[in-house]
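Hey, resending since the last one bounced:
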Amino acid sequence: MPLAEAETVVRTGEVISIANDQRVEGNFYALGSTVSISGTVAGDVVAAAGTVSINAPVEHDVLVLGGTVGVNASVTEDVRIVGGDVTISEHVAGSVFVIGGRVSILSTATIDGDVLLVSGEAVIEGTVKGDVLGVAERVRVDGSIGKLDMKVVGLTLRSEEH
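The structure tokens again:
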């Protein structure tokens, strides 16, 4: 299978993707309905779409505006997302900033920095080595976190229900 490489890439369109045999050596900018990244990005990912799926490593920052956003691969620096339904399932070496309706940090995720949230509902099942800060309607913490400093209406710590 041939390996495709490119410097900074800018793409617009209905469906935008980077295949798993592709590598972007610079930054990747995308604007469309669906963005799917299955190949490694050596720079930043900046995307705006209804659905954004990051399924391969990003070697710098992630900045996304989307309806449904999934960060399903490691990110070497920070993650910043504004989205309706946001899921982080892998390692983030920096901090995470999310404004979202529903934010899920899965049990497979580790965040080395802080998590800053403004959300309707937040579920933290993974490890946050830094602090969790912000505002949310409901927060459930089942994972390990540094300090929790949030304004919340409903808080559940180490829930047994999954």
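The CA atoms of residues 33 and 49 lie 5 Å apart.

Sorry for the duplicate.
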